[in-house]
TrEMBL record:
CDD domains: TrmD-like. It is found in: Cytoplasm. It comes from Rhizobium leguminosarum bv. trifolii (strain WSM2304). Homodimer. Keywords: Cytoplasm, Methyltransferase, S-adenosyl-L-methionine, Transferase, tRNA processing. SUPFAM superfamilies: alpha/beta knot. It comes from the Bacteria. HAMAP family: TrmD (MF_00605). S-adenosyl-L-methionine binds at G113, I133, G134, D135, Y136, V137, L138. One of its GO terms (molecular function) is tRNA (guanine(37)-N1)-methyltransferase activity. This is tRNA (guanine-N(1)-)-methyltransferase. The keyword Iron does not apply.
């Protein structure tokens, strides 16, 4: 069964964006995944097609209305068991583990927030899982949704030319990825590490693991601490 992605947005023209190119685009052409971009504004009932209103209790900005968004979700997700994600800077950080969980299912529904946010009632009533791609704020959830879909689609079976590629990269096994090199052997006075041209595959794997640990310790010590805690837990 092909992976089905439904995105609820005020800007459906932003999709599929970069996902229409390269591996993801070719996979879409082959029917390995599909994308349906739903215009939230189509579910407004007033003549101005209003989708937002001022925050209860006062404050700056506007908030997406729960009734309009709920109708959009219901039209897409009726009798649908796909996970419902809401892109939000206050959500749980996206991890490679969660990406693999999502990729193992039959699809995902993603709600793209705008303005100051989404009425909390629709988040709870429609079981939206808030997901963050980092500790920063975007103008809307669309770029974040594209990133989530990119991460998922690339590891769907048959999308990458070599499925092993997805098993030896950053965050797989809790480490950052080791350095990569290719020909020419010498470039501007820099040499490929001799171990990589030795033909000793056991030594090469050991070197790669050591380098992955080194880079993770230097750049993301939190990942090593997390792995240590999980092991001891």
């Amino acid at each position: 069964m092909a992976f089905r992605a439904s995105v609820l947005t005020l800007y459906p023209e932003m999709f599929p964006g970069h996902l229409g190119f390269s591996l993801a685009g070719k996979a879409m052409e082959r029917g390995q995944w599909s994308l349906d971009a739903v215009q939230i504004r189509d579910f407004a009932t007033d003549k101005h097609r209003t989708v937002d209103d001022t925050p209860a209790g006062g404050g700056a900005g506007m908030v997406l209305k729960p009734d309009v968004l709920a109708r959009a979700i219901d039209s897409t997700a009726e009798n649908d068991t796909r996970p419902r994600l809401l892109m939000s800077p206050r959500g749980r950080p996206l991890t490679q583990e969660r990406v693999r969980e999502l990729a193992s299912g039959d699809g995902v529904i993603i709600v793209c927030g705008r303005f100051e946010g989404v009425d909390q009632r629709v988040i709870e009533a429609r079981g939206l899982e808030e997901v963050s791609i980092g500790d920063y704020v975007l103008s809307g959830g669309e770029p974040a949704a594209l990133i989530v879909l990119d991460a998922i689609i690339r590891i769907l079976p048959g999308v990458m030319g070599n499925d092993l590629s997805g098993l030896h990269e950053s965050f797989e096994g809790g480490l950052l990825e080791h350095p990569h090199y290719t020909r020419p052997q010498a470039w501007e006075g820099w040499e490929i590490p001799s171990i990589l041209t030795s033909g000793n595959h056991g030594a090469i794997e050991k070197w790669r693991h050591q380098e992955a640990v080194r880079l993770t310790r230097e750049r993301r010590p939190d990942l090593l601490e997390k792995a240590k805690t999980e092991k001891n837990g």
